[in-house]
Design a protein that fits this description.
single chain; alpha+beta; seven-stranded antiparallel sheet; two-stranded antiparallel sheet; 56% helix; flat
Length: 820
């Protein structure tokens, strides 16, 4: 068995600062003569080739991350990483690296432990701090080297941050930057770039407060324009001052809020556009920068939320008909960004935020905006609506139910959403997909509330099916008036597929309402018209819809399907598909297989009406099995005595208690036959058993009679022999003729006067019709002994109930004894 502890993936860092996977293998460590030292070796698990051969250099900085990752640099621009499958393997190799370098394995970065004595380290920790060189042009190179050397050690990093903070060093550096820029001192500007970048990596909030202040932030961005790796400096400041414009859709009077918005935009720009992608050693060194932006956004949302005048003006202008289109577009975009910022809030603060928007009338405002013609404005409004639905669908449902009492169906908010979904002009229906997801959330009973006073599920679903469902299903009904879809282009088919997906969801989750709607509006018939579509995905959606309905095993649906012969379009689609082995073929066969196993009523309907069309399909056994199941059902209906006997034999098969058998036999033989009244059936308790001899005796006699009977049948009827699991005892005609069965002549051994079941017995009045015996065979065995394997438990219970409901459910062993 392969040792998974040593299983690793090898990664290298490419020029775009992205990790490339070099392969998976197993790592080991050992002395390599060629490299003159202990090395890490990784051999590929596929072919054993060498993926990595790296000498453990005593001066190389190795870093362990997340318990299963070891990272290091072999050259200036060549970073390597080993990702282990198990922590134990990572720890094992890490100990080997630390052993070679003489380090303590408890550290996460081998270079953290500097080569100095404990006394020197103690002195270093207790010293007042790091001494920075004077902030002068000729000392910038020394300062850049000091910053670079301090970053790998957390202790020295902390001391450097304190020194920069306490001496007001950042403002001095920015003065030097302005001087260097005026003098076009490119070397000094390159050193300043490295210094400022290093200060960012110190990851200290107090330094960020200084760097991002109004008077410093643009100079900080200027320092970061002069990357030594680039031939020409960037023009970030020009973009921020000339290209990027601050839009005030509603005047912001609070200067602190204005300054916070400007600062957040610029810091976000620095993070996204100015700073280089952090290397693997720097990935955790900018966490404070992320936090700075996050808390700024929280503060902005809180300040805007508290400014009631601002929000009142915002919603007033949004809904004012006099507001011009450009202004409204900006207002909606602002509200969209405002809601996006709210996602940074803690749950309790987000609750208060959306409650404030609700009180301000955001839903009526959205209703007005969604009714406008501007596509961009409607798109932004849809995004805002999605925030509301995802946050609190119950709030949206309550609003639409209240407005339905005052407005017509056409202008209800949900109907506007449905109309936009239907009328989406995007060829790929991107907006329609988003809106369908929102509708699905709104009609999902899983997120509906139920209280003592009201049930949201009942109220909302009643509202939805009364006021909205006809709007949703309108394109489906309009396109399926004929035997084929009237419009079958790609975009229409995509839309109908979306509608069907939502209706299928309703079938699964809205049992009562959707059932009434489907049956009353004959929806399934219309849906099955789509099986004739040229687009396979739409035909499969229609099949999936029917399959979900059948899967409910609801007899209301089943009767509706049988009454309207709704399997006909499915069978047409199956036959038109021909012998192609595709998803359509598999989906239809799976549906019939499910019916065969689980739905008796539909099994009979299919065989009686469509067998001629399906009987030649022999590359799967589904349809032959369907017919066999039908024949078994008919046999049980026509032969209740055999049915009850099979149930009793089945019970005997599983329970054998010797003492019970002996007691029962003794009680039976002690019973005086004369004490029985004519026609009285003596039936043992259902939980008593018979011995195997009692059971086999009548079966043996029956077998003998059966052999004679079969010989007669061959002569008289000239039937060809049947094999496999087909039933030789009767033949069904599917043109409406009645079923014929083979009759057994009365046997003197089994039908003596006074025997239950004999024509002269008073107890046999219910069976005065000509006696018939129909026996199912399976591989040459009589069905009385080996009943069909695919009988399910439900059928067994029904068989037992049917057997008990008949007038004379006597087992054959008792009949044999009575007649003897």
């Amino acid at each position: 068995m392969t040792d998974t502890r040593r299983r690793v993936k090898v990664y290298t860092l490419n020029e775009d600062r992205q990790w490339d996977d070099r392969g998976t293998g197993h790592v080991s460590s050992g002395y390599v003569e060629r490299l003159k030292g202990t090395s890490l070796l990784v051999r590929a698990e596929s072919d054993g080739s060498l993926l990595l051969e790296s000498k453990i250099n005593p001066n190389t900085a190795y870093q362990k991350q997340q318990d299963t990752l070891i990272v290091w640099s072999e050259a200036e621009n060549y970073d390597l990483a080993l990702s282990f499958q198990e922590k134990a393997g990572c720890d094992e190799i890490w100990e080997k690296i630390c052993q070679v370098q003489g380090k303590d394995p408890s550290v996460d970065i081998t270079q953290d432990v500097v080569d100095e004595s404990e006394e020197e380290r103690f002195d270093d920790m207790s010293s007042p701090g790091l001494e920075l060189p004077p902030c002068e042009l000729n000392r910038l190179e020394d300062l850049a080297e000091l910053v670079a050397s301090s970053l790998p050690s957390p202790l020295r990093r902390e001391k450097l941050a304190l020194a920069v903070e306490n001496e007001g060093y950042i403002r001095k550096l920015l003065e030097l930057f302005r001087v260097c820029e005026d003098l076009e001192n490119r070397e000094g500007l390159h050193h300043l770039y490295e210094i400022i970048k290093g200060i960012f990596l110190l990851n200290r909030t107090a330094l960020f407060e200084v760097m991002f202040s109004e008077e410093c932030i643009m100079d900080i961005i200027g320092c970061l324009e002069f990357d030594p790796a680039l031939p020409q400096p960037r023009r970030h400041r020009e973009f921020l001052t000339k290209t990027a414009r601050f839009k005030e859709v509603i005047p912001i009077l609070d200067p602190e809020l204005r300054q916070k918005i400007h600062q957040t935009y610029r810091v976000q720009y620095i993070q996204d556009m100015v700073l280089p992608t952090p290397s693997v050693f720097e990935e955790n060194m900018l966490s404070t920068l992320h936090s700075f932006i996050f808390f700024n956004k929280v503060e902005i949302v809180g300040m805007l939320q508290d400014d009631e005048k601002f929000l009142t003006d915002l919603f007033a202008q949004l809904t004012d008909e006099a507001t011009d289109d450009d202004k409204r577009h900006e207002l909606v975009n602002f509200l969209k960004e405002f809601c996006a910022f709210s996602q940074t809030l803690q749950p309790q603060n987000r609750d208060a935020f959306f409650k404030t928007l609700s009180n301000m009338g955001i839903l009526p405002a959205l209703e007005v905006i969604l009714g406008m013609d501007d596509v961009q404005v409607r798109g932004a409004a849809t995004d805002i609506f999605s925030y509301l639905v995802e946050y609190n669908p119950s709030m949206v449902r309550e609003f639409v139910m209240q407005e339905s009492q005052q407005n017509d169906d056409d202008i209800l908010l949900i109907n506007l959403i449905i109309e936009h979904m239907i009328c989406d002009t995007d060829p790929e229906l991107g907006g329609a997909v988003q809106l369908m997801g929102l509708l699905r959330t709104l009609v999902d009973p899983e997120n509906m509330l139920a209280t003592a006073n009201k049930t949201e599920k009942t109220e909302f679903l009643s509202f939805f099916y009364k006021h909205c469902m006809h709007v949703l299903s309108a394109p489906l009904l309009a396109n399926t008036t004929e035997e084929k879809p009237s419009k079958d282009d790609f975009q229409t088919s995509q839309l109908l597929a979306l509608i069907l997906e939502l209706l299928t969801f309703c079938v699964e989750h809205h049992t009562y309402h959707i059932k009434n709607y489907i049956i009353n509006k004959d929806i399934l018939r219309r849906v099955l018209v789509l099986t004739a579509s040229q687009h396979a995905f739409l035909a499969l959606c229609a099949l999936r819809f029917m399959r979900r309905i059948i899967g409910l095993k609801d007899e209301f649906y089943n009767r509706y399907i049988m009454r309207n012969f709704l399997f006909e379009p499915v069978i047409k689609a199956f036959l038109n598909n021909g012998s192609r082995y595709n998803l359509m073929n598999s989906a239809i066969i799976e549906m019939f297989e499910y019916v065969r196993v689980d739905v008796k009523s539909l099994t009979a309907h299919i065989v009686e009406n469509y067998w001629k069309a399906l009987e030649d399909v022999d590359y799967v056994q589904t349809f032959k099995g369907l017919k066999l199941r039908y024949e078994q059902q008919r046999e049980r209906q026509d032969n209740p005595k055999l049915d009850s006997m099979r149930s009793i034999l089945r019970n005997h098969r599983f329970r054998r208690d010797a003492r019970t058998l002996e007691d029962e036999e003794e009680m039976w033989f002690n019973t005086d036959e004369d004490d029985l009244e004519d026609g009285e059936a003596v039936v043992p308790p259902s939980d008593k058993m018979k011995s195997e001899e009692d059971l086999m005796e009548p079966i043996s006699k029956f077998m003998e009679r059966k052999k004679l009977k079969d010989a007669d049948d061959k002569e008289v009827l000239g039937k060809s022999s049947l094999s496999g699991r087909q039933n030789p005892s009767f033949k069904l005609s599917f043109s409406g003729s009645t079923k014929t069965s083979l009759s057994s002549p009365p046997s003197s051994a089994s039908l003596n006067p006074g025997s239950p079941g004999s024509p002269g017995s008073p107890g046999s009045g219910a069976r005065s019709s000509p006696s018939t015996t129909t026996v199912t065979t399976k591989g040459g065995l009589v069905g009385l002994v080996d009943y069909p394997d695919d009988d399910d438990e439900e059928e067994e219970e029904e068989e037992e109930e049917d057997g008990e409901s008949k007038e004379d459910p006597l087992p054959p062993s008792k009949k044999s004894k009575l007649s003897s």
